[in-house]
């Protein structure tokens, strides 16, 4: 099994335990409430997370392996992946690219939060119906991504710099 698959399997195997270990959250939200999250905070936390670090470590290991094997085609692919990943992260952080790759990773936690907090669903704050009842679940998602104090401070600073929503 390659290192990405192994790292992903380990992370996903631990998800139910990590979700259960979180601090209690208000469980009595009214029916029809939608969980929302701050996109910028989640993008930042994802790319600073242990999960992303494991993915990058696996790619670096593979790159070194294919360099040693003189597999130039695969070296180019992996180097291209690195540049494209960095570009995507910057575009996502700027709000200029969809965050589908991050949402896929967060789906298990969305499901857990939806059940635990009795939510109708979880969406980006900007995508929520302005007339709908909402509750911010950004903090719970940051917990799930193992965001440390530095990441949380950076996220808070970025949120504070955003222009107010119209």
Model description:
The structure is a single chain. The chain has 166 residues and is mostly helical. The protein has a single domain (3-7, 31-161), classed as Protein Binding, DinI Protein, Chain A. It is built from 7 helices and 3 strands; from the N terminus they run αβααααββαα. The protein has a 3-stranded parallel sheet with strand order 2-1-3. Helix 2 (39-47) packs antiparallel against helix 7 and helix 3 runs antiparallel to helix 4 (72-93). The model is unreliable at 1-29 (pLDDT under 50).
Attribute tags:
Protein Binding, DinI Protein, Chain A, disordered N terminus, 7 helices, 166 residues, elongated, three-stranded parallel beta sheet, mainly alpha
Give the helix/strand layout.
Blueprint: H1 3-21, E1 34-37, H2 39-47, H3 50-68, H4 72-93, H5 100-116, E2 121-124, E3 134-136, H6 138-144, H7 149-161
Parallel strand pairs: 1-2, 1-3
Helix pairs in contact: 1-3, 2-7, 3-4
Mean pLDDT: 84
Indicate the radius of gyration in whole angstroms. 18 Å
- Poorly predicted ranges: 1-29
Largest sheet: 3 strands, parallel
Please give a quick description of this structure.
With 166 residues, the chain is mainly alpha-helical. Helices cover 64% and strands 7% of the residues. It is built from seven helices and three strands; from the N terminus they run αβααααββαα.
